[in-house]
Amino acid sequence: MENRKISGFNTLHPAVLFTYFVSVVIVAMFCTNPVMLFLALIGGVSFFGVMKGAKLFFQDLCFYILMAVFIAIINPLFSHNGVTPLFFMNGNPVTLEAILYGVDIALMLVGVIYWCKCYSEVMTTDKFLFLFGKAVPKLSLVLSAALRFIPLFRRKLKEIRSVQSSLGLYEKKGMINRVTAELKVFSSLITWSLENSVDTGASMKARGYGLKGRTHFSVFTFRKRDLGYLICIIVLVGIVILGMSMGISDFKFYPEISEFNFGLKQIAVYISFGILSFIPFLSELWEVIMWKYSASKI
Amino acid sequence: MKIKIIKQILLWVIIPLIIIFGVVIFYDRAYAWISLCVAISGCIPFFLTYEKRQGNTIKLVILAVLIALSVAGRFIFSFLPHFKPVTAIVVLTGIYMGYEAGFVCGAFTALISNFIFGQGPWTPFQMFIWGLIGCLAGLLNKFLLKNFVLLLVFGAVAGVLFSCFMDIWTTFWYDGTFNMGRYLANIITALPVTVSYAVSNLIFLLILAKPFGKKLERLKIKYGV
Amino acid sequence: MEILSIKNLSFTYPMLNTRALDSVTMTVEQGDFVVLCGQSGSGKTTLLKMFKREITPNGKCSGEVFFKGEPIKDIDDRTSAKKIGFVFQKPEQQIVTDKVWHELAFGLESLGYDSKYIRLRVGEMANYFGISSLFHRKTENLSGGQKQLLNLASVMAMSPDVLILDEPTSQLDPISAGDFIATLKRLNTELGLTIILTEHRLQDVFPIADKVAVLDNGKLIAYGKPREICRELKKHPVSAGFPSAVQIYNSTDISTDCPLTVREGRDFINNNFSKRKIEIRDTVPKTEIAVELKDAFFRYEKEGQDILAGTRLKVYKGEHFSILGGNGSGKTTTLKILSGILKPYRGSVFINGQKMNRKPLTEYSRMGIAMLPQNPETVFIKPKIIEDYIELCKIKGVENRDKKIAEITESLGIKGLMDKHPYDLSGGEVQRCALGKILLANPSIILLDEPTKGIDAYGKISLAKMLNKIKSQGRTIITVTHDVEFSAIVSDRCALFFDGDVLSNSVPQEFFSTNNFYTTSVSRICRDRFINAVTVDDAVSLIKEGGQYENKNN
């Protein structure tokens, strides 16, 4: 098993996972409300942390904090909107609004990047293939075959390289010589792979590829638990989207920063989105507790 | 028949509805939303045409091989940043295997690269733009095959366009609207990358194009592909 | 009941004049295990592909092929795909998808079964073939043997009536190959599956075959029970690949039943011959050392295991030294260290007396080291062999280029191949061309990595001859192989590589006759009577020299 960790969220049905990621990422990507962005960011970061462990997590986080600061600083250079100029640079005003908008964008960016990292971690290629396999079977086969070929080609590449280097291909030093040598190796890999693709094609035909009515098999089953999660996700997203389309969570930076509004409606939207973005983290946590509990019973 | 109708409805009714809906609720970042929708939905017709096309099995495998090659190619030249054979292979695929295959090659190379290096919101854009480059090469194949210089120019221009398009998206992404100042700044900061894209496309096409044609020709003769 | 039959089948490839198959007529009964043999280029693969409509090559074809009495071109697509299974030679190239489970389901998906049915079949296959633990793995991470087993399982998932296999074990190491053939035997006896197989390792398959068919230049020259065929084709070149017991038997005039297995062969020897002995002669002059490893240590990763752990090795000038050992024992790594591709982290490498540890790769080739890789096609990067030769001459600064090329191509018999594309050549031909390219730099020490992989018995004989010729020119050869039979024929000394070190090294006669398990079949057959006989030639010479028929001496 390639690193399939014992994990609650990971093992959900791909359709549920995909729905989840798409809804969270879309809200996190296009909403400007700092509260929601903050919730999304924390949710994503905590999920990532619980998946990857503390060490990798902190290394990563430092990088993104720096990036966020950079984005916040840089924004006023391009955007001179806003009504509260702090000072002037080269005759252009640097406004409070622009800086805060930069912070907001940075929040959004880092949040989305973290969610995408989680997505990459959870939605492995086989889950992705499963989702689109039914709709576009031919393309999903192309994708699957390409994924199968990449490691093979990399191995072959290493082999050709090592053989050719002992035949003196890399003897001449210098960048141009190196590039030409690598190009020759690459060209040789192209030949090898094209010649051998014929065999792969024959093996597919021999196993009946091209017959009418090809079906799509998968190892994933949709269970009761998946349905529970799916309903949860849809309800929460529904509330959030409804709230957004009613303008409840609107937040503006230009020309003037809106005031934070913590009415009942707003709080309902925030709580819904908060729960939504913490679903994976909570379910991972739940799993850990369950394991501890059942382990202590054993 | 039923599936066909559903697909048509999806294409012409649901996608525009989603876009409009998004514009309404994300009005501040409407441009970013529209660009994302365009990138994703732009891929769909190409994918569906490829899906529908009657192709032989070996061509399908060859397409997978070419995609894998262009991804694997990223690793060979990792010692030179931004010097990658990806666009060259996408262009060649478009020329020799048809425009749908060209699009699929470009889009899937982006998709798989991001499976390896990490998915992000940039994935759909890369897919769409690389796909378009492959598709364009496929549509122009008559000219590009006849005139080698034109092919090289095409490669170089494709590198520049790729960079410019990605910058448009970055701009939308930051500002939600098109901010000319930021766009120009992005283009300028990305200039070295753009130049190395263009140069590397040119070099790879210069060296790979002719042997590549010969290799495919050989397959045709030897195995009747 | 006949399941497959061919009537008067001839086939010509496009743009060729000679027939690949020439009026072949044969019938395969249900439940038969048929072995198809013949030299490379005799039309075996072409014949196999005639049984499987989906992959039948283009060309001029006359005659007919019948499946269960019906012409094969008239049966419907589904039946043809489902009922006739085909396993190809290369394990890597048959795998289409990235996951084991998907690969197993591939054929069933094509046939349009629903998920529930496929799940059951796939589970059944994974269990039967013992690959359940691999089910969720990436196909990439399987070993060669596991890959081929997966290919077999994914064909069997479609529950075919006939299984056709084209040299399925030629790319595998002996242990995986043995396992694979044992699995075939199980399918044949337990399920009554009809199997048609081409194979290099006749030693392993003759004893379990019901029938043997022999092709020669596209003609079916013999078809019958293995024992009969063995006697019938005594003088035919194809007999070079027959089991050792058969070859020994054929060198005598004794008219008892032909022995096939080691056990039968041993009984045959024990019943007919007295004790006799081959004198062990160490012919290598141990004067100059060509290559030496002194307590070399190597590992691939910092935290990893030592692949070489204090390896000591001495190879003398002018000898052919073989390093034997199982898969992953570190043989190939040793070879890479000797060729300078890898460097030991402790200990030292000496070539012709010079310490090479810190020297760059170029220095190794200047010292006369050259390596023939396991997959010889990787030696070529140009579309024509000759272009590669010229390129190497340029890189190495070879003088008198044309003369040198002519000389080498002449002596290796590859003159006619110079203008060909490397991928148009047969396995043996590519290897010879690759060897030729390496010889251009005039190396004094040649390293060979699994030179017999994918080469049939006849090819091995000519390879052995060629290597002897190269050796006689004063070169040192170091071979890494798991082919014990081959190393017994060609080497001056053999060594076993195990646990990071070279365990024993001695003359093959001594080496193999002291080993009980890791030894040649001739040694197993003859050890009671013929002391130190390890090759067929050894045994035959003892039979001839000791006079025949000292019957039943106990």
Structural notes for this entry:
- The complex is a heterotrimer of chains A (298), B (225) and C (554).
- With 298 residues, chain A is mainly alpha-helical.
- Chain A is 72% helix and 3% strand.
- Chain A has helices at residues 14-30, 34-52, 54-78, 96-122, 125-133, 137-166, 175-206, 224-245, 264-297, and strands spanning 85-89, 92-95.
- Chain A has a two-stranded antiparallel sheet with strand order 1-2.
- In chain A, strand 1 and strand 2 (92-95) form a beta hairpin.
- In chain A, helix 1 (14-30) runs parallel beside helix 8, helix 2 runs parallel beside helix 9 (264-297) and helix 8 (224-245) runs antiparallel to helix 9 (264-297).
- Chain B has 225 residues and is mostly helical.
- Chain B has one domain (55-223): Orthogonal Bundle (Arp2/3 complex 21 kDa subunit ARPC3), CATH 1.10.1760.20.
- Chain B has helices at 2-25, 30-52, 57-76, 86-97, 99-117, 123-139, 141-146, 148-175, 180-189, 191-223.
- The longest helix of chain B has 33 residues, at 191-223.
- Chain B is globular, with a radius of gyration of 18 Å.
- The two termini of chain B are 31 Å apart.
- Chain C has 21 helices and 22 strands.
- In chain C, the strands form five sheets. In chain C, strands 6-7-8-3-9-10 form a six-stranded mixed β-sheet, with helices on both faces. A six-stranded mixed β-sheet of chain C has the order 17-18-19-14-20-21, sandwiched between helices. A four-stranded antiparallel β-sheet of chain C has the order 2-1-4-5, covered by helices on one side.
- In chain C, a hairpin with a 2-residue loop joins strand 4 and strand 5.
- Chains in contact: A-B, A-C, B-C.
